Amino acid sequence: MKVIKNLIKRTLQVDPYSRVTPLNSLMYVGSVKHGYYIPKNYLNSNSVCYCVGAGEDISFDVELVRLFGSKVFIIDPMPYAREHYQKLMDLTNKGEDFTIDKGKFEYTYKTRKEDFNKLTYLELGIWNEKKIVKFYDPAKENYAGHSIINLQATETYIEASVDRLVNIMKEHKHKSIDLLKLEIEGSEYTVIDTIAEDKPDIKIICVEFDEFFHAKDSKYLWNIKRSADQLLKIGYKIAHTTHQYKRTFIQQDLFKELKMQE
Q1: 70 within 8 A of 119, measured Cβ to Cβ
Q2: Distance of alpha carbon 188 from alpha carbon 172, whole angstroms
Q3: What DSSP character marks residue 48?
Q4: Alpha-carbon span 16 to 9, nearest angstrom
Q5: Which burial class, exposed, middle or buried, applies to 147 when counting CB atoms under 10 A from its CB (0-12, 13-18, 19+)?
Q6: Are the C-beta atoms of 224 and 213 separated by less than 8 Å?
Q7: C-alpha angle 129/125/234, rounded to 5°?
Q8: 1 pLDDT exceeds 90?
Q9: Closest by alpha carbon to 70, among 256, 204, 196?
Q10: Which domains does the chain have, with CATH numbers?
Q11: Are residues 26 and 248 in contact, defined by beta-carbon separation less than 8 angstroms?
C-alpha cells in the first residue's frame, strides 16, 4: 500500500522529491532541526540575508555571519524570540557557551562578539500588508511558534505588527536579497504569494512548510505544491528538499552559474 501511495504522489507531483534538480555544491548550515542546505561558494561579506522566523533557534541565521560574513536581518515579532537573541548576545559578550536542544539534537552556538556587528534584529512579522495581526498561541507546551493562520487551532493569541516583504526591503534600501529564510508557521504560503506577485530579486529562498508537521489530512500536499509551482513559474529551481518538504529554491540564473562551477 505504501508503495502505491508513493507512486501516486510522484505521479501527481506532490512527492517531496518531485521536480527537484539537485545541486552538488551545497553545504548544511545550522542545527539539526533548523538548518538548511545552501550553496557553498555564493554568500560573502556583501551578501544580505533575511531570516524570517527566529523562535528559540537562530543557529542558521548566526552561522551565515560566522561562515560567510554576511549581513543578516533576523525578523520575528515574538517576545521570546527577542529574549533568545538577547540571551545569546549577553552570553557571547561574557565568553560563555549557549547550548540549545540539549540531548539528541543538541547545538551550541559558536558566535563571536564581532558577529553582532553584522546582525540586525527586527521585531516584526512578514505578511501581505502592513497592519497589526493576531499570532495564535501554539497548542504544544514549550513550542516556540505562534501562527497567523492559527496552524494549531487555538483560541488565545498575541498581537504584533507585520508588513509586506517588499516594503521592508524598500525601508532598508535593499534592491535585492541574497537569501531569504521562511520559518513562519504556515504564513509561508501567503508570503510566497506576495513574492510571486511582486517578484523581488531574491537569489535563494529556504522554506520550512510547517503545515507538514500539523496536518490532519492530505490537503497540505496541495498547498505545498501550489507554493512550489508559484516559485518555479517565476524562475526558481528546487535545489534541495527533505522528506519533510524543507526546501531550498535558487534563481535559475544563479543555479546555472553554480552548476557550471561543479
Answers
A1: no
A2: 21
A3: E
A4: 9
A5: buried
A6: no
A7: 60
A8: no
A9: 204
A10: 25-124+173-191+199-260 (3.40.50)
A11: yes
Average pLDDT score, the chain:
94
Question: Residues 38-55: pLDDT tens digits?
Answer: 999 999 999 999 999 999
pTM of the model: 0.95
Residue with grid cell 516594503, as numbered in its chain: 167
CB 21, CB 255: distance < 8 Å: yes
Beta strands in the chain (DSSP E): 26-29, 36-39, 48-52, 71-75, 99-100, 107-108, 119-122, 125-127, 131-136, 157-164, 176-182, 201-208, 236-241, 246-251
DSSP one-letter code for 70:
-
For the beta carbon of residue 222, count every other beta carbon within 10 angstroms.
11
Whether 128 and 149 have beta carbons less than 8 Å apart is answered as: no
Whole-angstrom distance, CA of residue 245 vs CA of residue 69: 28
Distances from the Cα of 222 to the Cα of 17, 117, 181, 225, 240, angstroms: 14, 41, 21, 5, 19
DSSP code of residue 162: E
Q: Tell me how crowded residue 51 is: count the other CB atoms within 10 A of its CB.
A: 23
Q: C-alpha 130: how far from its chain's center? A: 20
Burial of 157 (0-12, 13-18, 19+ CB in 10 A): middle
3-state helix/strand/coil string of 200-248: CEEEEEEEECHHHHCCCCCHHHHHHHHHHHHHHHCCEEEEEECCCCEEE
